[in-house]
């Protein structure tokens, strides 16, 4: 049975492009131009994944409201924000509401489909019992590659996919500096330097919420970031 994806985007041409790209990969896709029609459809049946724009018609934050509603109904439904609004405040707001990731509309369609596939992969992996897999352990860090899961001192860190791959890029080569371009390449995103900086800030905050003394990620000014050797 093919998986169903809902796209909630108020620009018809953009919505059509996303729908066509995802259908080529075998997904069943339903598109919605505003929040109310999407909520009416979701009341009958939830899709397997939802892609949401933040601004929907005359609702500048309609996407946030929809995300809040969906997350209250399902803790595991993959939710992906795809928007032209990529300010740090917007990103933090989306992630705090429970979105699995927040990507800029500058992302290419192949990158978008790869991110959707990765979200489904993570959902499947987390539903399966733990098995022997590739694990990276470093001090308090445990990174389970197959399950796309990271823990710090035994407690799971609630990272988005983008954040997971950035931590992976840093931690697999401790002490080696990773430039912003290298981190973007690892996470399969195309964003500006300020957005990469925002991702790193959020990653630090998530670890610090578990361990106030967390200081594993160094900023190397003018070069990038590194995981403490």
UniProtKB/TrEMBL annotation:
Record domain OmpR/PhoB-type: where: 133-229
Pfam families: Response_reg, Trans_reg_C
Residues modified to 4-aspartylphosphate: 53
Superkingdom of this protein's organism: Bacteria
Domain Response regulatory: 4-120
Keywords: DNA-binding, Phosphoprotein, Transcription, Transcription regulation, Two-component regulatory system
SUPFAM superfamilies in the record: CheY-like (SSF52172)
Protein name: Proteobacterial dedicated sortase system response regulator
């Amino acid at each position: 049975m093919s998986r169903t994806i809902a796209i909630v985007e108020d620009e018809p041409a953009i919505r059509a492009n996303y729908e066509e790209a995802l259908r080529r990969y075998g997904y069943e896709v339903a598109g919605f131009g505003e929040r109310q029609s999407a909520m009416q459809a979701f009341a009958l049946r939830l899709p397997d994944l939802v892609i949401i724009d933040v601004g929907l018609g005359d609702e500048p934050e309609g996407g946030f409201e929809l995300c809040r509603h969906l997350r209250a109904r399902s803790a595991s439904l993959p939710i992906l924000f795809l928007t032209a609004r990529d300010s740090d405040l917007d990103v933090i707001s989306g992630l705090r509401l429970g979105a699995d990731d927040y990507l800029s509309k500058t992302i290419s369609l192949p990158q978008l489909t790869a991110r959707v596939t990765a979200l489904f992969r993570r959902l499947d992996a987390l539903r399966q019992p733990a098995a022997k897999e590739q694990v990276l352990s470093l001090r308090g860090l445990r990174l389970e590659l197959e399950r796309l899961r990271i823990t710090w001192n035994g407690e799971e860190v609630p990272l988005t996919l983008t954040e997971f791959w950035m931590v992976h890029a840093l931690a697999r080569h401790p002490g080696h500096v990773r430039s912003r371009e290298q981190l973007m390449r690892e996470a399969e995103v195309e964003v500006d330097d300020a957005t990469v900086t925002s991702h790193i800030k959020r990653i630090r905050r998530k670890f610090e919420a578990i361990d106030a003394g967390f200081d594993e990620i160094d900023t190397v000014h003018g070069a990038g970031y590194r995981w403490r050797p």
